[in-house]
Amino acid sequence: MRFRPKAVGGLAIAAASITALAACGGTSSSSPAAAGTPVSGGTATFAELPNTPPNYIFPFTSSAYISVSNSDLFQYLMYRPLYWFGTGSQPTLNTSLSLANYPTFSNGGKTVTITLKHYMWSDGQPVTAQNVMFWLNMEQAVGDVDYGAFTGFPNAEVASMKVASPTTLVLTMTKAYNPTWVVYNDLSQITPMPEAWDRTASGPSHCSTTVSDCAAVYKYLDAQSRNLSGYVSSPLWSVVDGPWKLAAFNADGHVTMVPNPSYSGPVKPRLAKFEELPFTSDAAEYDVLRAPSSSSKIDVGYIPTEDLPAKPAGAAVGANPLSGYTLAPWYSWGISYSTMNLQSTIGDHGAIFRQLYFRQAFQYLMNQQAIIQGPLKGYASPTVGPVASYPVTQWLSPQLKAGDQFPYDPAKARSLLASHGWKVVPGGTTTCANPSLCGPGISKGSALSFTFNYANGQAWIQAEMTQLQSNAAALGIRLNLKPEPFNTVVAGYSGNCVVAKIPCNWDMADWGLGWSFYPDVSPTGETLFKCGAIANSSGYCSAADDAMINQTLTSGNLSYMYTWENYLATQVPLIWQPNAPYQVTEVVDNLKGVLPQEPTLNITPENWYYVK
Amino acid sequence: MALFIVRRLLQAIVVLLLVTMITFALLRAIPGNVAAAVMGPNVYRDPAAIKLFDQTYGFDKPWYSQYLLWLGHIAQGNLGYSWNLNQSVSSLLGQRIPKDLVLVGFAIILAVLIAVPIGMLQAVRRNKAVDHFFNGFSTVFYAMPSFLLGLLLILVFAIKFPVFPAEAPQGETLGVIFSNFNAMILPIATLTLITVALFSRYMRSSVLDNLTEDYVRTAKAKGASERRILFRHVLRNSLIPIATLLGLSLPGVFSGALITESVFNYPGMGLLFFQQAQKQDYPTLLGVVIVVALATVVGSLLADIAYAVLDPRVRYTS
Question: Could you give the CA distance from residue A313 to residue A329 in angstroms, rounded to a whole number?
């Protein structure tokens, strides 16, 4: 699980209905796509989002460095995860790009057998089960502190692990879990590591066989990762099993990769080079897109929010302002929300937020469609609950496929407040008139006046906050908007304040980007919504919710998933808000294979090729 | 003069200490847990991780102890480590400062070379058409925000008429920059035009003041040509405010040009400070502050020395 990376660049505006997005092809070209003859070679350039240079190469990445730019757009091109997620525009398992076959489950689901395919490291060694064990041992040893996407696996769920053969690993789980969940949320975390990395400064070590050696090995590899100028020449990092290897690396973000001739995967790169280009701002990137020169060109870039063409109803994209390019929104697999602190220590605000009717009333004031059509220019989808509504997957219940459960309705919001003892004063301050109806812990005269901290720097969030403030004011709910830097908002308000032992004296917060379901792909709610979960920023806690989540973890029956998400969507543990795309991509017409884009935000430049 | 310089250098040390102390205290006063800001909320999972972070970077000590610790590191040449950018602060500064030396340095030198003659011409042709023209020029460019000017230049000279690239040279080394120097034209032009507007106004005003001085009347009475009066007498005296401006511009060379860097995709010190301030990257911020503070005191000192050289009446004595 990952707090959505701060994608400042192409974060676009506007949302569309789930139906329209699902139905549309999702691209627009200003000129007919060149059919052309595929050619080998060429250098494809890929624009990084502003201020997101890759800066950490070791694929066991700590919280400080785990990000799309380090993992999906850098490490995974060289070091393949055990299982690859992203099949076209779906976040599903891609067995053809995975290093192992789909695992077999036996012993009532408690035994998981992973069989590796025949892949080779570039140093001539095969990718073995011991390499997988290397990662698992390190995760056991230091994962809770030093792995940024730590979920508890394997410590919490695996009773024992055994290398049965060079290509077979057997995990014995503590109980029978939902097989899909095991693959999508546990095994999805693993990136096998070569024996060449099993060492410390003083020489070879044994982390792949001995957990107690792993802390020292991690420390060594982490230290090596801090030598950015040594990435290309390093004998460690040059051992790759992915389709690419590093040819040049600058700390400012310029990255050049060339094909790994030892790559064993199904698709070998056709390009001669793949380059990532850093940019200081959206405007700088867009200027180069519009005015390529002999020294700078972008094949796969993005269009800034303010330059996006408005998306007509029923269309996937608007008219592309750039000729020779295809416009394609890149949606990430995740949800977007702002947080109401149910554990707030300010007055009786926590007690107010703990009232379901209040959360629902507030949700009715969030006009997702207006934000989508307005500042987001049509390029977003509403968040309808704990499961992403786009792309539409098997995990989305029929009820939530129908759309937003709380479409903008100030009349309903008012009715909820009034029927629960609040004296609604439009334009003024609504107060509690009847405490027995308002709810426990709320005293007579309590005012609906709250502070809302949000991350600055994104125009659509600013617009959304202003709109929400205005909608709330119409019902006498006063929101004191407080913009703060992104890091400040994340540091202060994204964790469960009681569990994390950080101050709880805040009301509402929005870092603008929500949650990304990767590398734990299955959108089960144990990380975000269970009682006491560290990332459960609102502090929502419900025994019923926990019980339903537990059912989704142990059974593959989707009805449990649907029951849980339908329940939680109406519980409004978080304030659902529009889910903007990661970026709206521009792909040069003579470069094929880039689309469709994977919602896991992985890229596969080995599939890209030029045509003439 | 020597004593004056020594005294100023000693004062500079005190100034540097004060500036860094105030900056340090202000940064430490920013609310929020730095470990969480750097490592994300997952760090709350294990208080030991926060404790380790705090111990490693000294956040478990009172701010003044942290400051002394930091001073000790500085004395050993260790500017610290940017946890955000995963590089040492010194390497970051080493990458960025040369780029701004080229961008801002060239812009200032060009601005002086252009502004001085323009200012003189305006003064000599006061209230004539050429004076009005350059007055208009300086008003327009002085009022124009740098981002607007930069974007206009890109629009015209990179997009509409592709004469120059839309971005500055890409690369970490000066070699890359100089090998693709035509890509520096537009960013340098952006800064130069705005700086010329400022400098030429000062120069015009200064020349006008000097043209009314007695020594000019005396020189005319003695039969000196206008050219001789202007270039042998008036110019030198008129350069005094320019010297001051140049000295005060030195910090700008090291602090970078945030807007221009952003528009032309040229990451320098300005962007470094701006971006890392948003990420509570204290070591980097303090590193930049030291460099800019040092440049400020040196620039001020150089301005005073230039003043003394240009005007023999000025003597710095103990």
Answer: 15
A343-365 pLDDT tens trace: 999 999 999 999 999 999 999 99
Average pLDDT value for residue range A364-375: 96
Contact A490, B35 (CB under 8 A): no
Classify A273 as helix, strand or coil: strand
**Distance between CA atoms of A235 and A330, rounded to whole angstroms?**
35
Q: How far, in Å, are A149, A153, A360, A608 from residue A188 at the CA level?
A: 11, 10, 35, 25
Is residue A17 within 8 A of residue A378, CB to CB? The reply is no
The mean pLDDT value of chain B amounts to 87
Q: State pLDDT tens for residues A500-509.
A: 888 999 999 9
Task: Say if the Cβ atoms of B36 and A491 lie within 8 Å.
Answer: yes
CA dist A306 and A463 (Å) reads 13
Facing residue for A150 by CB, picked from B42, B48, B271: B42
Q: Are A207 and A155 in contact (CB under 8 A)?
A: no
Angle at CA B261, nearest 5°, toward B259 and B265?
125
pLDDT, one tens digit per residue, over A576-610 is 999 999 999 999 999 999 999 999 999 999 999 99
Q: B146-154 and B185-211 are packed helices; what angle lies between their axes, rounded to 10 degrees?
A: 130
Which of A284, A290, A534 lies at the smallest CB-CB distance from B264?
Answer: A284
Distance CA A250, CA A237 (A): 15
Nearest CA to A601 among A221, A228, A331, A223? A331
In chain B, residues with a C-beta closer than 8 Å to the C-beta of A277 are 170
Compute, in degrees rounded to 10, the torsion defined by CA atoms A27, A30, A36, A41: -80
β-pair partners for A610 = A39, A591
Measured between alpha carbons, how far is A536 from A341 in angstroms, rounded to an integer? 10
What would the mean pLDDT of B308-313 be, rounded to a whole number? 75
- Side by side, the strands of the sheet bearing A515-516 are A2-3, A515-516, A334-335
Closest of A590, A593, A596, A595 to residue A35, by C-alpha:
A590
Two structure tokens written together for A210 = 């001995």
Candidates A110, A123, A210; CA nearest to A163 is A210
Pairing state between β A325-330 and A28-29: antiparallel
Q: How far apart are CA A73 and CA A47, in angstroms?
A: 11
The three-point CA angle B292-B293-B298 to 5° equals: 95
Q: Which amino acid is at B253?
A: V
Where residue B42 falls among pLDDT bands split at 50, 70, 90? low
Query: How buried is A506 (Cβ within 10 angstroms: 0-12 exposed, 13-18 middle, 19+ buried)?
Result: buried
> Which chain A residues touch B277 with a CB distance below 8 Å?
485
Q: Do B46 and A145 count as a contact with CB atoms less than 8 A apart?
A: yes
Q: How far apart are CA A223 and CA A232, in angstroms?
A: 15
Contact between B170 and A65 using a beta-carbon 8 Å cutoff: no
Q: Report the DSSP beta bridge partners of residue A2.
A: A516
Rounded CA-CA distance A74/B19 in Å is 40
Q: Find the helix or strand (DSSP H, E) in which A399 lies.
A: helix A398-401
Output the CA–CA distances (angstroms, integers) from residue A543 to A83, A441, A529, A534, in the order listed: 33, 20, 11, 17
Q: Which strands sit side by side in the sheet containing A104-106, from one edge to the other?
A: A104-106, A111-115, A168-173, A158-165
ipTM of the complex in this document: 0.86
What 3-state class would DSSP assign to A47? strand
Chain A, residues 87-106, CB within 8 A of chain B, namely: none
* Cβ proximity of A204 and A189 under 8 Å: no
Average pLDDT over residues A149-163: 92
Q: For A22-55, write each residue's pLDDT tens digit.
A: 333 345 444 444 468 999 999 999 999 998 999 9
